[in-house]
C-alpha cells in the first residue's frame, strides 16, 4: 500500500468509529501527512478496509524504513499515539459529550467514554485480547485467572535507551492530570490520545479514566487532581461513596496505603473500579455479627480467603461512620496469639483495602483487613504469597487480586507451554533451568492425574495455576478460614 492509501484508511477508520467528523477529513489527512513527513497525497480510488492494528503497522513500518522512527516497541508506541491523536476529539469536546450523555443516564456516559477510549487506541484492543483468561472453581467461588500479555515486552535496545534517557519529573507519575495529551518519552508512555473526565469528589477535583490494560470490564481509575499520597481514612470512604452515588452501576475500591499490601503506585491518591462482579462480591456473609451502636447496619464476615468484614445499609453515611470506627480500631489492634501486631519499632502494619458498591438499592462496603509485617522466615511479608508460591505469583496482592482476579506475569505463557511439552513427553521438569522452579509444584499435583493427554493438559495446568492463586489469597489473609481464624477475627470484632 502507498502512504496515501494508509493515511486514507486511517482517516476513514476515524470517521467510521465516530472519532473524526466527516467534515474534518481534509484537516485530519493533512495532520497525518505532516507526521509522516509526506508532501504529496493522492486520494485513492478505493480506500483499503483493514483492522486498525494493520493500518498502524503499515504506517509505522514506513516511518521506520524512512528512518525518523526507531524500530523498537517503545518508539513505535510513541509514534502511533501521535497518529491516533490526529483523529481524536479535543478534551473539551469529549467532556461536553460525556456531560450530555450523563444527563440521560450515568451508564450512557460511561458507555460512550469506554468506547472512545478503545476506538482512540488508548486501550489497545488487539493487545488486550491476547491476555489468557479462565475461571477456577474454589470453596470461595469462581476465581478469575489472567496471564497479562497486553503490556508489551521491551526489547534490550529499548530498555537501554530508557535507562540512558534524561530524567524528568513531568508528569510526576502516570496518574497525574498532566498525562492528558503528553507526547511521552522513552521511560514514560505517550498519552496524546488519552482523555480524562473531570469529576468533583468530596468537594475536590478528581479525574476519571480507564486503565489502558483493562484487566476486567470497564476497568476505570479515579484519581486525585493533585499529586498527593494514598491514604485510607474517613475521607477515603466518603470519596468511594461519592463516586458510587454518581455512578451506581460501578463499584469503586482502593488499594491499601502501606507497602507490601498496597498497590504499585502509593504516591498518588487513586481508586479503581468498573462494571464487573468479582467472586468476592458474590461471596456470602457466612458469620453475621452485630456491632454496638450500628443495629441498623447489616454486618458479617464474608466467606473469603482474605479477612473481610462486609457492612450494608441504605444510608451510606452510616457505612462511612462504621468504616471509620473499624479502621480506627484496626490501626492500633494487636493480638499476639493471632500474630497480629499493629506496630513494630514504631512502624505501622495494619490497614484496610476497602471496596464500595451499590446492590439492589443497598450500599455495601467490604473492609479487607491487611497487615504488612515481615519476619526472617517471610521477608516479603507474613500476609503475602509465601516463597513456595513465588514460581507462580510473587508480586503484591493489591485491590484487583483481593477481589478474586489473578493478574499473573507474562512469563507464565512460555513457561506453561514448555511445561506442557515436558509433561506430555514424560521428561524431568527439574532438569530444565526455566522449569526447575515449578518442579515441586508439579510433583505435588501430578499424582492426581493418571493420564495426561493433548486434550486435557491445558485444562489441568489452568486449574492447578488457579488453585495456587487461591493459596496466594489464603496466605494474604490475616485470619485464616478455619475455626481458629474465625475465633481470632471475632476477638477483633469484639473490640468494636
Keywords:
496 residues; alpha+beta; ten-stranded antiparallel β-sheet; three-stranded mixed β-sheet; 15 strands; 37% helix
Structure write-up:
It contains 16 helices and 15 strands. The protein has helices spanning 3-17, 25-35, 52-66, 73-85, 91-104, 106-119, 125-128, 156-164, 234-246, 279-282, 316-331, 399-402, 411-424, 439-445, 457-476, 483-494; strands at 132-136, 143-147, 197-201, 204-210, 220-224, 251-253, 270-274, 285-289, 298-302, 307-313, 343-344, 347-348, 350-359, 362-371, 405-408. The strands form three sheets. A ten-stranded antiparallel beta sheet has the order 3-4-5-7-6-13-14-10-9-8. Helix 1 (3-17) packs across helix 2 (25-35), helix 1 (3-17) runs antiparallel to helix 3 and helix 3 packs across helix 4.
Please specify the SSE layout and strand pairing:
Layout: H1 3-17, H2 25-35, H3 52-66, H4 73-85, H5 91-104, H6 106-119, H7 125-128, E1 132-136, E2 143-147, H8 156-164, E3 197-201, E4 204-210, E5 220-224, H9 234-246, E6 251-253, E7 270-274, H10 279-282, E8 285-289, E9 298-302, E10 307-313, H11 316-331, E11 343-344, E12 347-348, E13 350-359, E14 362-371, H12 399-402, E15 405-408, H13 411-424, H14 439-445, H15 457-476, H16 483-494
Parallel strand pairs: 2-15
Antiparallel strand pairs: 1-2, 3-4, 4-5, 5-7, 6-7, 6-13, 8-9, 9-10, 10-14, 11-12, 13-14
Helix pairs in contact: 1-2, 1-3, 3-4, 5-6, 9-11
